[in-house]
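Hey, quick one: can you model this chain's 3D structure?
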Amino acid sequence: MEDHRRGVNEYLFHEFALDLEADESRVSETWPFELREVGRAANLIVFEFEDDQPYFALAGPSLNYLPKAGMTFDDLVLQDAGSRWIRARDPIDLSMSKPGDDAVPSGLERRRALEELGARTLPGQQVEILEGLFLRTDHRYLALFKGSGAAEAMVVGIPSSPSVAVGFPDASAWRRLAWAVGRSLRGSGATVGTG
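Sure thing. Here's the predicted structure for all 195 residues.
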């Protein structure tokens, strides 16, 4: 079984800009970070390491790292499955413009539709759209909302669930949205580990 630690550490050496302070020839399986493998899923190998906070390092088709933000390996697997599901549906966020594409409502229409969806989801609250997507292939909306009086955010628009409560306030809105989709897919019996 191939150990990816040296390659991950080389990537992290450059990403954390350690090349400004140290010699790249020192990079090894154990430096600049002590990488602990926490699991494998599909073609993904996940390590954890500490710097100013705990991180995941992902080795697979590409290298990446992200703050753990309270997530476990299983949460990361759900996030990955949800991300793949969302990407397969050609998501259009509120910052994207698609003039001339009749399959995509205008940015104004998308915002209004998401605001209405948020108001129905969290009635009587001021609703913030943390992440709002129009899924082009499904012609439906998927969103992460935060209400003024809510401790957790809510994801709405997953076909198998009316809404899903999401914690992980330190994770990005995209990660939280993807996690909720992955969790719903797993709960509905859909395949989430491949893609």
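One thing worth noting: The chain has two domains: 5-68, 89-188.
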